[in-house]
Design goal:
alpha+beta; about 15% strand
Length: about 375
């Protein structure tokens, strides 16, 4: 029997997430920020980081006492172009948006800006913050560490997070160049999508304690937390397909997310005390904004960037392949399609949304499920 998929328009879904977070104790303005980040993922088709994470990653952690619904942002250090922020285990999106805005403001004034955050929590899609800069004719770069998932090359222990290294750059096309991806072959959010759909994983994404590939999705999600499974870095196992490159980039992100802000790292991000008690994740992030106008007229930059992307898309295709994409193109097409169709919500998410609706008395929403 085919699963019933419902489609919900952007505004309704964003408002529902905002109101659910308010119900969980997040102040209204902060809840709006968080919902804006989450709906951005759903708009772009990044289903691993949108409505699917509202309850398990944010609301459940608030209820567990390991994430503060009220975010006390402390500006630890400031210079003309840099800042260090302590989020005190509040909502990651709230501290992160302020950090990237600070970097953008400094870049607007002085050409470049950078801010780093410590003691934070999951901040949604990294691309949201890079896109903030691209919308201002700037180059946006950001990244975050995360709870250990990736095994180092030739290892089987999950040591590094999925650690995205993310870029956004304006172009003369309808969409920017936008690269937002983990430094592992896949990432936990995508595995959760497979789990909700009842699908097994493709071989090569996850290994067990003996270095053998695993595909049993639901058990993998449990074993990643227990340290009995690990994600493979970009490039895959060993050196034959250059897995050391993904391992290296994941380490770059780990250092920039911890060393500049005197933050936690590696096993310090497990979310459990040595005694096995749940605790805050204490994540770290970094945000960089580069003002293109300090180098060249932004329109010239955007034209050159567009020419590069068009040349790539128009290059010779492999046999049987009708199209070449550039980063950000599929996300733009998802946005266009979902602007009219809405965001697809499967049966598992429908059930979760109904539970939240009842719990927080959100009777103003009338969903068709």
């Amino acid at each position: 029997m085919e699963e019933k998929i419902c489609h919900i328009d952007f505004a309704t879904l964003e408002n529902f997430m905002r109101d659910s977070l308010i119900g969980a104790g997040v102040p209204a303005a902060d809840a709006a920020t968080c919902a804006e980040v989450l709906i951005t993922a759903d708009k772009l088709g990044i289903d691993s980081h949108g409505i699917g994470r509202l309850k398990p990653i944010y609301i459940d952690r608030i209820k567990a006492g390991i994430q503060n619904p009220v975010t006390e942002v402390e500006w630890v250090r400031k210079s003309p172009t840099t800042a260090v922020i302590d989020a005190h285990d509040g909502m990651g999106m709230v501290a992160s948006k302020q950090a990237m805005q600070y970097a953008i403001d400094r870049a607007d004034e002085l050409g470049m800006g950078m801010a780093v955050v410590r003691n934070s929590t999951h901040y949604g899609i990294a691309g949201y913050y890079a896109l903030m800069a691209a919308k201002r004719n700037m180059i946006g770069i950001c990244g975050t560490n995360a709870r250990p998932s990736i095994a180092p090359t030739f290892g089987v222990e999950n040591m590094l997070g999925t650690n995205p290294l993310t870029f956004a750059m304006p172009t003369d096309e309808k969409f920017p160049f936008f690269l937002d991806c983990a430094t592992s072959v896949s990432q936990r959010g995508k595995i959760e999508v497979y789990g909700r759909a009842g699908k097994e994983l493709p071989p090569g994404w996850v290994i067990d304690e003996n270095g053998e590939t695993r595909t049993d999705t639901l058990q993998i999600l449990e074993d990643l937390v227990k340290g009995k499974a690990a994600l493979t870095p970009l490039g895959g196992l060993g050196e034959a397909t250059a897995g050391y490159k993904g391992y290296g980039y994941a380490t770059v992100v780990e250092i920039l997310s911890a060393a500049l802000q005197h933050g936690s790292f590696l096993k310090g991000l497990l979310g459990f005390s040595p005694e096995g008690v749940k605790q805050p994740y204490h994540l770290g992030h970094f945000f960089i904004a580069i003002n293109i106008a300090n180098f060249i007229d932004p329109e010239d930059f955007k034209h050159t960037a567009g020419e590069i992307l068009r040349a790539l898309r128009n290059s010779r295709k492999a046999p049987g392949c009708g199209r070449i994409y550039t980063a950000g193109e599929k996300e733009y097409e998802n946005f266009v399609r979902r602007s009219s169709e809405g965001v697809p919500v499967n049966a598992t998410l429908q059930k979760t949304m109904k539970e939240l609706q009842r719990e927080y008395h959100l009777d103003q929403y009338h969903f068709d499920f």
